[in-house]
Amino acid sequence: xxxxxxxxxxxxxxxxxxxxxxxxxxxxxxxxxxxxxxxxxxxxxxxxxxxxxxxxxxxxxxxxxxxxxxxxxxxxxxxxxxxxxxxxxxxxxxxxxxxxxxxxxxxxxxxxxxxxxxxxxxxxxxxxxxxxxxxxxxxxxxxxxxxxxxxxxxxxxxxxxxxxxxxxxxxxxxxxxxxxxxxxxxxxxxxxxxxxxxxxxxxxxxxxxxxxxxxxxxxxxxxxxxxxxxxxxxxxxxxxxxxxxxxxxxxxxxxxxxxxxxxxxxxxxxxxxxxxxxxxxxxxxxxxxxxxxxxxxxxxxxxxxxxxxxxxxxxxxxxxxxxxxxxxxxxxxxxxxxxxxxxxxxxxxxxxxxxxxxxxxxxxxxxxxxxxxxxxxxxxxxxxxxxxxxxxxxxxxxxxxxxxxxxxxxxxxxxxxxxxxxxxxxxxxxxxxxxxxxxxxxxx
Length: 444
Ligand code: FES
Ligand SMILES: [Fe+2]
Description:
Layout: H1 9-12, E1 13-14, E2 17-19, H2 21-24, H3 26-37, E3 42-46, E4 55-61, E5 64-70, E6 76-80, E7 95-97, E8 102-103, E9 110-111, E10 117-119, E11 149-153, E12 156-160, H4 168-172, H5 177-184, E13 191-193, E14 198-202, H6 206-213, H7 219-222, H8 224-240, H9 248-258, H10 261-264, E15 269-271, E16 277-280, H11 290-303, H12 305-312, E17 316-321, E18 325-328, E19 333-341, E20 344-354, H13 359-373, H14 378-394, E21 401-403, E22 412-414, E23 417-419, H15 429-443
Antiparallel strand pairs: 1-2, 2-21, 3-12, 4-5, 4-7, 5-6, 8-9, 9-10, 11-12, 13-20, 14-20, 15-16, 15-23, 16-17, 17-18, 18-19, 19-20, 22-23
Helix pairs in contact: 8-9, 9-13, 11-12
The protein binds FE2/S2 (inorganic) cluster and fe (ii) ion.
Residues 83, 85-86, 88, 104, 106-107, 109 line the site of FE2/S2 (inorganic) cluster.
């Protein structure tokens, strides 16, 4: 009897290169969804997206449409967006308030906010069947299925669709700093989502986006023209300000030209188990302008001078939480990756307010959101073009391998943590680390 042979994933990933099919093969994509996205902890959303009981938003985990909903007790639940009767999707909208219950729009079965059955109209018709509601409303055949595990870390809600596996904290490991850094920078110790995010559908594989996040080699090439143009204007404005500085928003763009490859090499990537990674380096966001000084004052009042210095001294540019999050904590930005198909990827681009911080600090975050991460900026467009071109090239017969060899063999490994070597910030260590994790998940 012929047996379906599972691809040998270990052979697809070598220490310094990866087979192109990893990015283009639809069967491999299905396996990734099963073994990775529908198994590990995936970010659903921030609890401030659902402040009141009945508030919900819909979210994709792997191939599964899910609902994140605030229950009556205040707990945030994550449920499959599917009616147990004939399979209808319960929530068709992206977000809203469902009141005290979910009501299926097809035959009016109703459910509690934690997914348990509330009522089946004319239920006597089900007596003696497995669908009888008798004996409790907990009958799983009549209830909306829950995500196997849900955990909330400092307001960031994650779900895992597998009942076994590490706890959220163990899974995140050191990458948890993304959420600590973001929240600690708020005088009130927490952040609040700014409703509505930008959504972009990329015509490329989800891993191309993630690999690009800590690719310190590309910005001074891909974003050079945008950076140069901003730098020209920045210089004119600084001149006009007679010794003063141009608004910080120009620096957010000009840095793409002024931070050259050798400067990027001064940064470091630190790579952790499960594919997570941190890029160190601060964008110089501690200018001595009145807005920053006012913020410093509020923070010192909230935390004391010593703790304040620790908080604002955290040296992070970017944290990648594999396989679905890219966080820029000092600027309160977060991008969530939702694979839709082998060559289609949704990214959600969110930003947050620091609770208790002056409005001007929020405007700074908003400026970065609009100038660097939004679909309207040239920065994002530059990246998208390259993701698409990468996917097109990888789909061709022009070669079988993707090279991840930059500074290979020069990484520093200690206790399972791999750091790029000194003056090697543009190393492809983060991509090697992601693929190492990928192969491990896929073989599991
Ligand atoms: S499909 Fe939901 S009540 Fe029938
Ligand atoms: Fe980029």
